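ugh ok so i messed up the first submission bc i forgot one of the chains. this is the corrected input, ALL of the components this time, i swear. 513 residues overall. if the numbers dont match what u have on ur side tell me asap before i send this to the collaborators (the ones from the other lab, u know who)
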Amino acid sequence: MAAYFDGARARLKTARAADFGCTAADFDSHRLVVTSMPATAPSHYSLEAITFGTGTVLSVREAYLEWVKENAPAPHYRAMFANALLAPFVREAGSRGENMDFRAPGLGFIPADRIAARPVPPGFSDGRVDSEFRALHVQSARFDNSLGEPDDEYVAGLWRYGFALFENGEPAAVAGAYDDGDGLLEIGVDVDREYRGRGFGPVVVTNLAAIIIAEAMVPTYYCSPTNVRSQRNALASGFLPVTSGARVTKTRP
Amino acid sequence: MPGPLFAESSAVLKSALAAQMGCSPSDYESHEITVVVRPPDSREPHLALMTTCGTGSVVSVRDPRLGDWVRAQEIPAHRNQWIFRPRFLEGLAAHARELGHVDAKSHGSSGGTVLAEEIEPPALATGFSLRELSIAEQAALRVGNRFNNALGDEDEFRRIAASRTAFAAVAPDGSVAAVVGISDQYPGIDEIGLDVSREYRGLGLAPALTLHATRWIREQGRQPIYTYGFTNVRSANNALRCGYRPLWFLSAVFVPADMH
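and heres the new structure output, hopefully the right one now
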């Protein structure tokens, strides 16, 4: 494995350890580690789980810490199974008068090595795009992975910059970079429906990843494991899977 | 990008998967949710199986009343991955229990990969050897469930019956360090299961055994597949290292008594 990959994974572990209130070594423990969720976590988070493959860390709100420790399943990775912990956790929260829901699991990727930008297809123009571009296109919701959902102020606060392919001045594919913790920028990508199947996903992802790497940051990429095409886009863009995660959040009554 | 071998492997798997589920392969390209009743000759024992190859999704049920429940859910248009949401799966399991399917529950979801690139098996680490395990050796190694991905749990009689062969990487001191099992998953398709004892990890035994099994399956004129639980990042990377690429994803609701 490339030295770049090892360094990038170490940075991701350090950032996630800060997010989860654990040590980076806990990710390699081959056991379940349950921690108190740091105060810096978004206020609607109640439980967050992550594994790098060799141990699972659960970060939990203080009020539920003892319940989780008493009800956590074995082996460690079953803590992310819906029927083993997440659904019982939501039921426990309901019995305490709190409405919660859990997200489908997510896969996390980092580059296997330094990523080289793929060439832009003939007939298209390209370039780095900024908040002015985002403001112009976010309301259309055509690029909600790369620009965020319309009127989502939380995500708007995380968005940094992007890379777009244009045909006749109109965006055909966009990759956006979001703050993903210390030294990390997460890539979200959209290819407009009429341009799909032409390999534009890896073009915008690799170009944005190359910009991020040139700025001494680590690009990350996330998708649901059910989104097989997005997984293949990550792989084709030079990324490898490194994490699997799940989350329980508060919902409106 | 995946090439001709991936296209060929994908077509074979999609066709076999569709036959087992009771749908058409084109349902996986539909961008919709297709609900079907499982054919009586399907090998899949699960009460309900949710599968996708990334676009269309298919719900295959053994009890038609579960299909009615799925159709009654207000799933937004073009949200074909809705059926993999934990809340949906838990709701389906709860409804199955209401219908009398005792202890019905959802299962940890799995990703599935098919071969996209043929890679030559590497030599084993110095001092290690590879050999085929006899039926008796497989049974002996099954005790304690140390190699349960490769050989199945002791009480997984259905899985054990489907076993085609197994190979072991043997350490210099004669102990079994890793096992790869090959089982008859669907007609024409063999699944690879793998375990490496913790003390022998990091020696490259996983890709060596996976690639050996891949070649063995191909020599039989069959298609290899490799699946892993969604949390098993290291297994996913082993598949990628061995030339496999993701094709499908599967979630299940099952009755434990049906699985043995």
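quick check: The first helix of chain B runs from residue 4 to 21. that seems consistent at least. The longest strand of chain B covers residues 176-186.
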